[in-house]
Specification:
Number of helices: 5
Largest sheet: 2 strands, antiparallel
Order of helices and strands: EEHHHHH
Distance between the termini: 63 Å
Strand content: 5-15%
Strand order of the largest sheet: 1-2
Structural class: mainly alpha
Radius of gyration: 23 Å
Helix content: over 70%
Shape: elongated
Oligomer: single chain
Number of domains: 1
Amino acid sequence: MTIQLVNKDAQRVYHQPEAEEHYHSGGATMLGFWIYLMSDALIFASLFAVYGTLSRNYAGGPPPQHLFELPLVALNTGFLLASSIVLSIGMQAMAAGRTATMWRLLAVTGVLGAAFLCVELYEFSSLIAEGATPQRSAFLSAFFTLVGTHGLHVLFGLIWLVTLLVQIAQRGLNEDNKRRLMCLSMFWHFLDIIWIGVFTVVYLFGALR
């Protein structure tokens, strides 16, 4: 969209790009995404509150110290934290205009995120094989809901990441893709913060009971 400026003396028409329109559009996108993150934070806060309320209701089932394998969970935590570090380096490469380097770092982030999900699925399948299903007790219901919701968010982030990798490969690192990468980066770091809370409240405190 352009704005026409008319010089009456010279009878000439100048066309001035409406740059502010794109600027305000990008600002609105970032603001909207911040609002989304705040609403997501409220959802997780509610899930943490429910877990804190039900975490001692075992209904005769196994308590957390008999279920959780801390070395495995620590490894999984390392995968997610490493993916966040790699993503941060990738964002620095984006700022420096090193598109190829950024693309490879984003791919590594995706691999680490997929490794996190694989370990989490293995943990869930092992618990279910032992009879520790969500129906077994209120504690297990709250556990699977909280950790599973975080896992679904990671899965969504991976789908988003792969989609962006395809778009960047096809269209390059244009302004729209840069803005989408900024939103993805905020989302991924947000999931890291949530997972640190899950690791501390669910796994560490559970193992210390």
